[in-house]
Amino acid sequence: MKIIQILLITAIFSLLMPASFARDPLELPQHLSSAKLQGSGRLTWWGLHIYDASFYRVGSLSSSEFALDMRYQKSFSGISIANRSVEEMKRIGVPDAQEALCGRELTAFLPNVESGQTLTAIYSPRQGTTFYYEGKQIAQIPGSDFSKAFFGIWLDPKTSAPKLRTELLGQTCPPPLFTEAC
Prior knowledge:
The N and C termini lie far apart (46 Å). The chain contains 5 helices and 7 strands; from the N terminus they run H-E-E-E-E-H-H-E-E-E-H-H. The chain is of the alpha+beta class and 182 residues long. Helix 2 packs antiparallel against helix 3 (96-109) and helix 2 (78-91) crosses helix 4 (144-155). A 7-stranded antiparallel beta sheet has the order 1-2-3-4-5-6-7, covered by helices on one side.
């Protein structure tokens, strides 16, 4: 039964199709209070509402600081979220050794989520990526390598959810962490 659940979760996330939606503003830490919503989207699979995602930029839309907030509409274990994240990192071309390290880091802190709960990741060049669960900080991973791999799941041009990427970025370029031409 456990294997069937894991396969179902994997299938759900591999065939994701986003749709637009409206979202309440994210409550960010004080030093990021100038963040503005850049875009949002809904991740669905065969009509199942998986999560709503909102992408915020701090200061201007060309800022290097940003946040990705996800409000889950289904329950998932932290391990299944970490495993799916690693699969998506592999899909966008993250090297095997880095992907394995990212997987260990995510597995160490990602909580189980229930419908209606949020996970938020904030990138700051000076601090790396800080994770929040229901508004409480749960982890901080320094450096840009992890950040680029993690946020690449949604923002890399090779994402498995290109429509969601477009909805998150709106009419602007990806953050400077992603060095693609715009």
